[in-house]
Design brief:
alpha+beta, 2 domains, seven-stranded antiparallel beta sheet, six-stranded mixed beta sheet, 17 strands, about 20% strand, globular
């Protein structure tokens, strides 16, 4: 997906927001129909029948007829595609779309190719019932058959084209690397390189805390609360941009330097869930401590270090060359003799084998075990799973 900034006028922005509201309304209405399905009611209406219902609704309601039929029908098509992905097990269950959080719509077909270049830096795109909107050409615009218009939490508008990027070619030398992801150090390579994702500065943390306290005292619906939410969103977006830039640079560098990249097979979604409450069996209505504050800090550290983003971008840039290794005992096993015990870890940073006396950085030792792959499995039966993403397939979603 290739994304660019667009700069609509105030009048065009109002029209774009109306398109977003219509697409969100149609999506939620289709989700409500599907959620109310029951055996005695018969099957829920699908795309073709919902398009007929949309035509009848546009004929009856003027506010819906004022919007673009292309945008509204595409929302129904996207929902139908989401259902197919859910039933096939490749995507999660479709969810409700909320105002202010899910602002966007998609255009597919001949409308998506109506882009005119103005000069070296600027172009314009024709959006149905909005007109020509300025587009910043930060790089070459791809030849795509669909695009998606969206607005982020900082009130910035973007256009994203649905294209499959070319994979990064490997060096062809057979080089293998293991990547150990952590909280203190974002990524450690088996070559001994220590990589750290840029996080929040001390000033940004203090400002975020100050803004959140002011937001808690603000009155809902007030202009001051809206400005505070925008300021907080800018801080989070700035941190996310730094993290995304780091992931892009590191993933490209690894894909170019190594032919085989091995990472731990981590279930990050399950790892970052909040702990469940622990009821006190002796006192009804009272709960025991469950260390939720410590777990929240750990979850925040995992997400801020971009564990999932790094593995995902590696699989996209080096398809078929990324292998996932079972993470069990990789940090407790000696990379020299293969002895495994919890006593090998003196602390978080130091690894010292009690059998052979090998001493090394704990994360580097774990990365070497991950890079060993099959060699480790010969000692400890640690399986290696090759990523199923062999070659990028063309897609029409943006």
């Amino acid at each position: 997906m290739s994304r660019f900034r667009i700069y609509p006028t105030p009048k065009q922005e109002a029209a774009l927001l109306q398109h977003c509201a219509h697409a969100r309304y149609v999506w939620n209405l289709a989700l409500e129909q599907w959620s109310m399905w029951a055996p005695h009611r018969g099957p829920a209406p699908r795309f073709v029948k919902q398009c007929r219902q949309l035509t009848e609704a546009r004929a009856e309601f003027g506010w819906l007829r004022a919007g673009s039929q292309t945008v509204q029908q595409q929302a129904l098509r996207d929902f139908d595609q989401a259902l197919k992905g859910f039933y096939s097990g490749t995507h999660r269950r479709p969810r409700w779309r909320k105002a202010g959080l899910h602002e966007g719509f998609r255009i597919v077909g001949s409308q998506a190719s109506r882009i005119v270049k103005l000069n070296r830096r600027w172009a314009k795109v024709n959006i149905p019932k909005v007109g020509w909107v300025r587009l910043r050409m930060s790089r070459k615009i791809p030849d795509a058959k669909s695009y998606r218009i969206s607005r982020d939490r900082m009130d910035r508008w973007h256009i994203a084209f649905a294209v499959v990027p070319e994979p990064v070619p490997g060096p062809g030398t057979g080089a293998v690397v293991g990547v150990d992801r952590g909280v203190t150090l974002s990524a450690v390579l088996s070559t001994g390189e220590l990589l750290e994702c840029p996080g929040w500065s001390k000033h940004e943390q203090e400002r975020l805390k100050h803004l959140q306290r002011r937001l808690a005292r603000g009155r809902r619906g007030s202009n001051r609360r809206r400005r505070l939410r925008l300021a907080i969103a800018k801080l989070h977006r700035r941190a996310a941009n730094r993290r995304k830039d780091w992931v892009e640079r590191i993933s490209t560098d690894l894909a170019r330097r190594f032919d085989v990249i091995r990472v731990e097979d981590l279930r990050i979604v399950s790892m970052t869930k909040r702990p469940k409450p622990r009821p006190d069996p002796r006192r009804p209505g009272v709960y025991l401590p469950n260390q939720r504050r410590a777990k929240a800090g750990l979850n925040r550290g995992i997400l801020m270090n971009g564990w999932g983003d790094l593995a995902r971008r590696l699989e996209e840039k080096a398809p078929g060359r990324v292998e996932r290794v079972n993470p069990a005992n990789t940090s407790l096993t000696c990379s020299v003799c293969g002895h495994c015990t919890s006593k090998n870890r003196e602390n978080q940073a130091v690894f010292r084998c009690v059998a052979c006396g090998h001493r090394a950085n704990a994360d580097v030792n774990a990365a070497i075990n991950i890079a060993a792959g099959r060699a480790v499995s010969a000692r400890r039966e640690t399986p290696v799973r090759v990523s199923q993403k062999r070659e990028p397939q063309p897609t029409t979603s943006a």
